[in-house]
# Entry
Amino acid sequence: MARTKRSSAVLEAARRRLAGHKSITPAPDFGPNLKVSDYEQDINNLSAKIDTYNQRLSNLDELLNEIEADEKDLRAKNTRMLSASEAQYGTDSSQYEQVGGTPTSERKRSPKKPPTKG
# Structure
């Protein structure tokens, strides 16, 4: 399942506000600490960070898919390796037990349940 990408309501509001400021003629002067060009740069910086974040999430999603595929392949190979040990040494051998198999002599049988009447 893909991770949810990030968006920003603050960024969208800032973009709309910037468009409004740019449409004012002559350009507004709010003093040395509030310049429209600095505001635009802040908007672009945040936008770039969000884009980078979302790209990294996509890369992580791709890596996770690769990991899950590798796990699936390895799970199948685990089964094959155990089966090969079983075929080579038998199901009641110590070698079979060493690779993770349960020897038949150590398996517990579940008691048979009486049939239910219904």
Notes: The longest helix spans residues 36-89. Helices lie at 9-23, 36-89, 94-98. The chain has a mean pLDDT of 92.
